[in-house]
């Protein structure tokens, strides 16, 4: 019977969440938590059994009482004693039921809340130490939903589980008693089951569809409202509040219309349950009449079968309604387990030691790294930084700058090949906590925690005093800006610091890292969002700040690279050039090229390229994922490391006669369209640029460009330039 | 049926004030909550009448159960025909009652639900429109996530309080009244006792619900904290990990999670021994005893057993309300609490007040700051101190200064997002405090630092500033903003959707879309907060050309870090700690301002460096 109830609605559910694990696996996982509370659970189950017994026994006693009631002789002693017994039994049974129910609710509440906390805490700890890539790929909102919503659903599921146990007991006991009292009526009651399953099944089928629609509409309204609130300043500055309100009103109305459909569906649920129970009653009472015509069927027995049939059918309805919810709890469990089984972050070696303080030389030796198998973002990078040296790192977007320093040196990830060492210690043989205490990282996106500015600066140095904070702020010239905040150092950071400007956020993160006093410093475009004036102040403080620390600066500013002891030039994951500014400029290689593309215009040079000569711009997507030679070539051709437009990719694929562009590098197989495309590009470029482009293509593909094409392109470019 | 929303009649004139309208109409949070009945009186009335009908028929059916059993028992004991005509008539009556009950209950539930969903839609819209009207003083200090959750989840809670909870309570009320009435028909003593008992019961249950309400609210807050703590950690995982602060974060989380657990337990404990239920248990037991006694005494006549069963059935029907009432009372309480929270936010006392008789200004006149001081609403600290300057029409002004120097505040004041704490900002001889904000913002446009674009088509984003713009105008603006070629290169062109469900634009592209958007609004004064980080030369050049186009033929005030912009500006205003420390052209400031000199020395390629750099790079142009 329980099976039937389970399958009923499930059979109709086509669009439900696909679980990755079987129910058995999920339950065995759940068991790990449940077994700690085995006593409480047993208690609740025992109470449930007793409670179901009571539910069944109650009508039996009253039924017997009615049978014994001698209406013909009101003065008889037995009538009064029956009366007393009946009332006492009624009172005692109901009260005991109430006590039991309350007691088990209490036990469950205690257990459930404790267990929920445990699951959440374990999950959170596990997530905190999870693989970086996993955390980065998931949206923070999604992960949070795992921690809050899914665990919550799990708790509801557990609660339901115990209730299902007692419902099943009631159903079984009622049915057995019903069969004993009158097997004919028992069998007739079974006849009501198909209609229950049909109703529950149909209901959950339609409900699932409509609920999905309502949820989606709700999501859209919510998204619209979120956007409206987020963009409120724009709406206000263009006087567009009314239009936004109108848009919201339309979506809001749509949500209402779907909700109404839901209302239409649910309107039948309870009325039809009530109606059904009376229909069953009418059938039974008429049947009792028929039975009575052939055999004696006492009034007490009639009462009994009426009550028993109700306590058989009602839990049945309840159960069939419950199963979809139980299914969603299992789905939640499944997603929770996903996290428990997710890849953990790199772990300390068993014999890991603390990082020694004596030598801050940083050695990169043949470092190769891929986030995903075989998609190398760094290949064979080797160089070493002397203690106290300031190294600037330059390269196009996607060259691997951030990966090398922010992710590998900090050991957020382990290298695939080669090694990174500090002094003579490989960082994989060092305790991560000591490594991270030695390294200070200022990330690209300034991230602040909820709390005061003071707390934020103290974040990395729990033992520092407020005086230290004032001191460090003064040294990096941040005190002026912090004091200018409405409550100075006590200003609260709301929503990651939305009230602060990007510059303010950034300078606070710099102060935070400097306070931690790291020996090795990684600044990943740490001052990119500062205004000119602040930038100049930080620039002035920088010499003193970097003193005695090995510093890596991923540079975006001209001033930084000029001050650097040495410059590391990365290109497509390889170290191409190394030296100081003057040396590298002389070399006239990639650095010189980069310098002209990124840095020179930060100064006051007159740059006189006409807008129409700027060339074609493309969508800036997935720069970091390079997919095969076709893509690489287009990138070299595009000069700026941008993804080719869809049209270009199509062209290339066409040119290969359906062969995979991944395997077949190009060069000789250039199609006429591609050559045309290159010619078009050449118009917007300097002859110098064409040479660099050729170099790049050669490097990417390992093959030479046809010489005549090269000449042609240079010609085009020169001709075009002269015209302009 | 027409969609009847309160805000439907708002016209285009900028005088209507939704906040005042709503506040005046509903006066307080309770009236706002109960306004569901004011908004849709006939629908609710119809639903209530049907509900009374269904409560009556269902109670009547319960009573008929006893009658039928009584008749059966009587016929049996007297050896009469079992299916007597009385018996059959009663059965038929029962079927009729069941049918009427089914129909009226279904219809009443549906109408009530539908109307409550309407109510939900209306208050959600009202809430949003009122909030949207609040000035930036509100948004600066409020977490938009909290407001969003109020507008979505808490409005849902209010609706849940109305439907199903309040509906169930009304239904329970009818059931109790009608049942009591039917019992009185059988036995007035039992009925009267019941009536009194239930009044007491309701009062006690209400107080009980009041105790649970705060815990419910606390749980909601706990859950909110839980999710914001965890979200923050995952967003800032780089930072957490680089400072090796996992344990600290875990402790923080455990602390919040434990608090949730404690409150969850408290709620469970409170609902476990719901002692008002005992009242109904005792009362029904007593009534049962009394009824049984009367049966034995023969006071109920030959059909006594039936009467007993009827009374018993009705009593059980009452007892069943025990399962419903407490949960629904708690929901109702929670709904009232939510309405209160929302109302308080809607009732924000805005420091920015619209003038009663809005003035217009001549925008060809000078923009002047006269002794302007400013502190953000609710704070003491002055972020601008006695700032005075004037900008001749058509001038290009560059604003520089560190974070917190007050430069962005100046822009916000010109846009009248705030009013100065002291002093005035005048256009010609008209103070902008005497102008309506909509008017000011139709003449002044700001391109902000963090570009906000809507997840919509490029066309809609550009035309955001002028919804009735023709396609030609949009195209023209895009061209002048140096973004037209790019848009044309996209397969979907202007219909390309950007944002979460569409394509991702680079920073430079976003900025130029924003410039096109500003271009289309054709402002008299342009405010530009341009603090882009370093970009490559082509992006940079595109931006420069776009900005030049945008600044043409109008007064512009630009916050910048671009040295070229500084050099080209008619006036540079150098801000520090809320005061002006230098004002003049680039050349003047190099002579007069030591801070300006300091800045230029520490930044690359000042005039002096220019020559030798050109030499080393070999010239790019």
Give a quick set of tags describing it.
heterodimer; A: 724 residues; alpha/beta; ABC transporter transmembrane region fold; Rossmann fold; six-stranded mixed sheet; four-stranded antiparallel sheet; 27 helices; 63% helix; disordered N terminus; B: 621 residues; 2 domains; 22 helices; 64% helix
Question: What share of residues of chain A is helical?
Answer: 55-70%
SS-based class of chain B: alpha/beta
The total count of helices of chain A amounts to: 27
Number of helices of chain B: 22
Number of strand elements of chain A:
12
Mean pLDDT of chain B: 83
CA-based shape of chain B: elongated
Helical percentage of chain B: 55-70%
Distance between the termini of chain B: 69 Å
End-to-end span of chain A in angstroms? 86 Å
Mean pLDDT of chain A: 76
Q: Beta-strand level of the residues of chain B, as a percent range?
A: 5-15%
The CATH superfamily of the largest domain in chain B is known as ABC transporter type 1, transmembrane domain
Could you tell me the strand content of chain A as a percent range?
Answer: 5-15%
Strand order of the largest sheet of chain B: 6-7-8-3-9-10
User: How many distinct domains of chain B?
Assistant: 2
CATH-derived architecture of the largest domain in chain B: Up-down Bundle
Q: Mind describing the biggest β-sheet of chain B?
A: 6 strands, mixed
Topology of helices and strands:
The complex is a heterodimer of chains A (724) and B (621).
Chain A: H1 2-12, H2 23-34, H3 38-68, H4 77-128, H5 132-137, H6 140-181, H7 183-190, H8 193-230, H9 232-237, H10 241-266, H11 269-294, H12 299-340, E1 362-370, E2 376-385, E3 390-394, H13 401-409, E4 417-422, E5 425-426, H14 432-438, E6 439-442, E7 451-452, H15 453-458, H16 466-475, H17 479-483, E8 492-493, H18 502-515, E9 520-524, H19 532-546, E10 550-554, H20 558-563, E11 566-571, E12 574-579, H21 581-587, H22 590-599, H23 628-638, H24 646-655, H25 672-683, H26 687-701, H27 707-723
Parallel strand pairs in A: 3-10, 3-11, 6-9, 9-10
Antiparallel strand pairs in A: 1-2, 1-4, 4-5, 7-8, 11-12
Chain B: H1 18-26, H2 29-39, H3 41-77, H4 85-133, H5 136-141, H6 144-186, H7 188-235, H8 237-242, H9 246-272, H10 276-297, H11 304-346, E1 367-374, E2 384-391, E3 396-400, H12 407-414, E4 422-427, E5 430-431, H13 437-443, E6 444-447, H14 458-462, H15 471-480, H16 484-489, H17 507-521, E7 525-530, H18 537-551, E8 555-560, H19 563-568, E9 571-576, E10 579-584, H20 586-592, H21 594-602, H22 607-617
């Amino acid at each position: 019977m329980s099976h039937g109830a389970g399958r009923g609605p499930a059979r109709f559910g086509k669009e439900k969440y696909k679980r990755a694990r079987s129910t058995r696996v999920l339950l065995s996982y759940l068991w790990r938590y449940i077994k700690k509370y085995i006593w409480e659970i047993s208690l609740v189950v025992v109470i449930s059994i007793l409670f179901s017994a009571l539910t069944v026994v109650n009508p039996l006693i009253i039924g017997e009482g009615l049978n014994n009631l001698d209406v013909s002789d009101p003065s008889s002693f037995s009538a009064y004693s029956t009366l007393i017994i009946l009332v006492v039994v009624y009172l005692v049974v109901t009260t005991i039921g109430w006590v039991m129910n309350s007691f088990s609710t209490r036990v469950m509440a205690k257990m459930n809340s404790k267990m929920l906390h445990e699951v959440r805490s374990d999950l959170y700890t596990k997530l905190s130490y999870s693989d970086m890539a996993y955390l980065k790929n998931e949206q923070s909102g999604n992960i949070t939903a795992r921690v809050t919503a899914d665990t919550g659903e799990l708790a509801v599921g557990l609660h339901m589980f115990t209730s299902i146990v007692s419902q099943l007991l009631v159903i079984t006991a009622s049915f057995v008693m019903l069969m004993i009292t009158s097997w004919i009526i028992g069998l007739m009651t079974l006849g009501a089951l198909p209609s229950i399953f049909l109703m529950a099944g149909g209901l959950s089928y339609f409900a699932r569809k409509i609920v999905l629609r309502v949820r989606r509409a709700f999501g859209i309204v919510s998204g619209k409202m979120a956007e409206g609130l987020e963009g409120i300043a724009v709406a206000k500055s263009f006087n567009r509040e009314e239009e936004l309100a109108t848009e919201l009103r339309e979506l809001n109305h749509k949500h209402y219309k779907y909700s109404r459909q839901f209302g239409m569906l649910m309107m039948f649920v309870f009325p039809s349950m009530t109606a059904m129970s009376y229909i069953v009653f009418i059938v039974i009472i008429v049947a009792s009449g028929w039975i009575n015509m052939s055999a004696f069927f006492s009034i007490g027995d009639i009462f009994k079968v009426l009550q028993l049939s109700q306590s058989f059918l009602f839990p049945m309805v309840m159960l069939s309604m419950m199963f979809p919810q139980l299914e969603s709890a299992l789905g939640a469990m499944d997603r929770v387990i996903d996290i428990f089984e997710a890849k953990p972050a790199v772990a300390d070696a068993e014999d890991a030691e603390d990082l020694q303080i004596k030598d801050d030389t940083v050695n990169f030796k043949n470092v190769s790294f891929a986030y995903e198998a075989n998609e190398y973002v760094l290949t064979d990078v080797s160089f070493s930084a002397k203690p106290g040296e300031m190294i600037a790192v330059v390269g196009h977007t996607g060259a691997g700058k951030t990966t090398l320093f922010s992710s590998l040196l900090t050991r957020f990830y382990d290298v695939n090949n080669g090694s990174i060492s500090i002094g003579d210690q490989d960082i994989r043989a060092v305790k991560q906590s000591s490594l991270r205490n030695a390294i200070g990282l200022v990330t690209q996106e300034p991230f602040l925690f909820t709390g005061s500015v003071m707390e934020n600066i103290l974040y990395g140095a729990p033992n520092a005093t407020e005086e230290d904070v004032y001191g460090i702020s003064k040294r990096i010239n941040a005190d002026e800006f912090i004091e200018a905040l409405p409550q100075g150092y006590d200003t609260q950071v709301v929503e990651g610091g939305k009230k602060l400007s990007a510059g303010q956020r950034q300078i606070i993160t710099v102060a935070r890292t400097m306070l931690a006093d790291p020996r090795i410093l990684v600044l990943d475009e740490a001052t990119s969002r500062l205004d000119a004036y602040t930038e100049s102040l930080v620039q002035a403080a920088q010499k003193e700040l970097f003193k005695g620390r090995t510093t890596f600066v991923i540079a975006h500013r001209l001033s930084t690279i000029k001050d650097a002891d040495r410059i590391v030039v990365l290109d497509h994951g390889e170290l191409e050039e190394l030296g100081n500014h003057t040396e590298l400029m002389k070399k006239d290689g990639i650095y010189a090229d980069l310098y002209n593309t990124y840095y020179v215009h930060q100064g006051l040079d007159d740059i006189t390229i006409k807008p129409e000569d700027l060339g074609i711009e493309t969508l800036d997507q997935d720069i970091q994922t390079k997919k095969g030679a076709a893509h690489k070539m287009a990138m070299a051709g595009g000069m700026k490391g941008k993804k080719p437009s869809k049209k270009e990719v199509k062209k290339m694929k066409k040119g290969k006669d359906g062969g995979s562009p991944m395997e077949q590098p190009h060069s000789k197989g250039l199609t006429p369209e591609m050559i045309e495309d290159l010619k078009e590009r050449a118009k917007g470029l300097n002859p110098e640029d064409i040479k660099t482009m050729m170099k790049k293509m050669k490097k990417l593909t390992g093959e030479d460009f046809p010489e005549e094409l090269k000449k042609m392109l240079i010609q085009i470019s020169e001709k075009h330039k002269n015209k302009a | 049926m027409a969609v009847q929303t309160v805000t439907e009649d708002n016209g285009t004139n900028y005088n209507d004030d939704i906040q005042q309208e709503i506040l005046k109409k509903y006066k307080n949070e309770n009236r706002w909550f109960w306004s569901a009945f004011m908004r849709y009186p006939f629908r609710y009335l119809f639903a209530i009448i049907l509900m009374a009908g269904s409560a009556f028929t269902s109670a009547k059916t319960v009573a008929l159960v006893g009658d039928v059993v009584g008749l059966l028992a009587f016929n049996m004991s007297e050896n009469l025909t079992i299916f007597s005509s009385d018996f059959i008539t009663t059965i038929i009556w029962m079927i009729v009652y069941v049918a009427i009950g089914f129909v009226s209950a279904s219809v009443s539930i549906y109408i009530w639900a539908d109307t409550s969903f309407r109510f939900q839609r209306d208050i959600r819209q009202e809430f949003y429109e009122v909030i949207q009207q609040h000035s930036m003083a509100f948004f600066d200090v409020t977490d938009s996530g909290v407001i969003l959750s109020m507008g979505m989840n808490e409005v849902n809670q209010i609706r849940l309080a109305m439907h199903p909870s309040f509906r169930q309570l009304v239904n329970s009320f009818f059931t109790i009244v009608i049942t009591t009435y039917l019992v009185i028909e059988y036995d007035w003593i039992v009925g009267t006792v019941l009536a009194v008992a239930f009044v007491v019961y309701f009062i006690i249950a209400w107080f009980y619900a009041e105790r649970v309400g705060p815990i419910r609210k606390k749980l909601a807050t706990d859950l909110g904290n839980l999710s914001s703590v965890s979200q923050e950690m995952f967003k800032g995982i780089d930072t957490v990990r680089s400072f090796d602060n996992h344990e600290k974060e875990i402790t923080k989380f455990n602390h919040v999670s434990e608090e949730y657990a404690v409150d969850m337990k408290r709620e469970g404990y409170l609902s476990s021994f719901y002692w008002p239920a005992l009242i109904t248990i005792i009362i029904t037991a007593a009534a049962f005893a009394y009824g049984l006694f009367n049966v034995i005494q023969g006071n109920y006549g030959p059909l006594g057993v039936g009467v007993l069963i009827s009374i018993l059935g009705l009593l059980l029907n009452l007892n069943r309300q025990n399962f419903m009432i407490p949960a629904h009372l708690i929901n109702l309480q929670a709904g009232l609490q939510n309405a209160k929270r929302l109302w308080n936010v809607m009732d924000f006392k805005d420091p920015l007040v619209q003038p009663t008789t809005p003035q217009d200004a001549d925008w060809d006149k000078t923009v002047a700051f006269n002794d302007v001081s400013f502190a953000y609403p609710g704070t003491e600290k002055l972020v601008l101190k006695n700032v005075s300057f004037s900008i001749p029409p058509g001038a290009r002004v560059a604003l520089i200064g560190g974070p917190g120097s007050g430069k962005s505040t100046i822009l916000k004041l010109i846009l009248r997002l705030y009013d100065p704490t002291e002093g005035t900002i005048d256009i010609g001889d008209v103070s902008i405090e005497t102008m309506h904000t909509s008017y000011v913002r139709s003449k002044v446009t700001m391109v902000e630092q963090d570009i906000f674009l809507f997840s919509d088509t490029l066309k809609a984003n550009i035309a955001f500033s002028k919804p009735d713009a023709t396609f030609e105008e949009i195209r023209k603006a895009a061209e002048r903003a140096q973004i037209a070629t790019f848009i044309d290169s996209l397969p979907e062109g202007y219909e390309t959707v950007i944002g979460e469900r569409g394509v991702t634009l680079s920073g430079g592209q976003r900025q130029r879309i924003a410039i096109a958007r500003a271009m289309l609004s054709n402002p008299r004064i342009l405010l530009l907060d341009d603090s882009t980080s370093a970009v490559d030369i082509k992006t940079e050049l595109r931006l420069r050309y776009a900005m030049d186009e945008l600044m043409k033929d109008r007064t512009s005030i630009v916050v910048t870090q671009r040295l070229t912009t500084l050099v080209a500006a008619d006036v540079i205003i150098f801000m520090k700690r809320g005061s002006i420390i230098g004002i003049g052209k680039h050349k003047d400031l190099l002579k007069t301002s030591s801070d300006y000199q300091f800045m230029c020395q520490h930044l690359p390629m000042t005039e002096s460096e220019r020559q030798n750099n050109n030499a080393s790079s070999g010239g790019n142009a």
